[in-house]
């Protein structure tokens, strides 16, 4: 009897007993490995020609703004009246302005100022608006009060906000940032509230509430992640709008004050020289157009990529 048992390996019985289960697990693992992973948002964005172009343009714009002090051939305030209002190619690549300052340097630093102004405004305004929208969707008793307040803010144009804030404070970048931040709050709140209401109707939210998940955990784990897609699209589109609105406020004298380089202020400064030195006003206007176009294209492509109904 012992000789017969010695012929059987110790793990043979276990292998025989668990053979079907092991085969099933191995087959399931092979099936999972055979399923291709879903492409990420960045991969989908790069596959779209318009998205790849917009993303590349935005990256170049951001890099130019960040590294402006190293890319600029001269200081943005270094003037030479002997070379004032020189055409592109006569003095520097893109000519000079009315003070003889290099236009390449002024455009790089003007882009840096406009991007910084837009970034602060969007982060502050959209951050507050997102909190208001989430609170209005999650707490119905205060929804009416919060959204009526947002409607009141939405009824005031951004230019009017800029005029009022400049009258209280003084014209400058601070007044523009405050005006753009306040004008972004109601728009963001409406977008976030609509997205949050759709998420709160899902069954997994009810399941989480039934399991006793706290409000903070519900917001952090379920509500905010599932609202990110529409918010990302809105913020990208809003960034381009804020650049344009900030340039408009600076154009009428409420934004950056001389000698600060800012695209809207530079376009306004060149109005007096349109007939004999159009590049002073045209070049900053062209940069504003490119920046706004890049962010609008990126926002439109993000909307198509993140929305399964619009995805091709």
TrEMBL record:
A GO CC annotation recorded here is: plasma membrane
Q: Which domain of life is it from?
A: Bacteria
**Per the UniProt record, which residue ranges are transmembrane?**
52-72, 115-139, 159-180, 231-256, 276-299
Q: Specify the protein's topology with respect to the membrane.
A: Multi-pass membrane protein
Under the heading SUPFAM superfamilies, the entry gives:
MetI-like (SSF161098)
Q: Name one Pfam family in it.
A: OppC_N
Q: Which family does it belong to?
A: Belongs to the binding-protein-dependent transport system permease family.
User: Would you tell me the protein name for this molecule?
Assistant: ABC transporter permease
Species whose genome carries this gene: Bordetella trematum
> Which gene produces this protein?
gsiD_4
